[in-house]
Write a structure and sequence with these properties.
Elements lengths: L2 H14 L5 H7 L15 H15 L3 H19 L9 H18 L7 E8 L2 E7 L5 H14 L11 E2 L2 E2 L1
Antiparallel strand pairs: 1-2, 2-4, 3-4
Helix pairs in contact: 1-4, 2-3, 3-4, 4-6
Length: 168
């Protein structure tokens, strides 16, 4: 995974579970004393080991941890990339994120951000399909929670289908 997102996750964990970060990073093979560069590639397995250890120490499931991280990361992304949030509503913001991820794929070698395909069913229903080989569904759902909080929108989210690589 790219350092940009991993460093954001670490920042969130240092805020909510500071006592579990340093040793668990070290034990997972991530140097807690070295800054994480945005262009660093952090092995997915190291990140998973780190997250599983933090969740165990915090006495929560790893899915719950990812959901908490996702919700908080939306705030962190707003702080770092507020220009992207200059949208009238959550739909327009989410729709623009797929374009942002396409640019990231082209400009940062080795990056593989997820895609989000949105299909309008009617004026009250939108199907959003999240596609990622990493299956980080709970993180994504936490981000979605954060988006609706940010835009102060009350939206009912229903999971239609979850299978390897996609969540609708």
């Amino acid at each position: 995974m790219k350092g940009t997102v991993v460093s954001t996750w670490v920042k969130t964990l240092k805020k909510i579970y500071p006592q579990y970060v340093y040793n668990n990073m070290k034990n997972a093979g991530i140097n807690p004393d070295a800054p994480i560069s945005p262009l660093d590639n952090i092995d997915d397995q190291k990140v998973n080991t780190f997250m599983n250890s933090v969740a165990k120490d915090a006495n929560i499931t790893v899915d719950k941890l990812w959901r908490i991280i996702g919700r908080d990361n939306l705030k962190a992304f707003y702080e770092g990339y507020s220009l992207f949030f200059k949208k009238d509503n959550a739909y327009l913001f989410l729709n623009s994120m797929n374009d942002v991820h396409q640019v990231v794929r082209k400009k940062i070698p080795g990056s593989n951000p997820p895609s989000m395909d949105m299909k309008i069913q009617n004026k009250h229903v939108v199907y959003l399909t999240y596609a990622s080989k990493r299956n980080m569904f709970e993180y994504f759902l936490g981000l979605i929670d954060g988006v609706f909080e940010h835009f102060k929108e009350s939206v009912q989210v229903e999971e239609v289908e979850r299978k390897s690589g996609t969540l609708t």
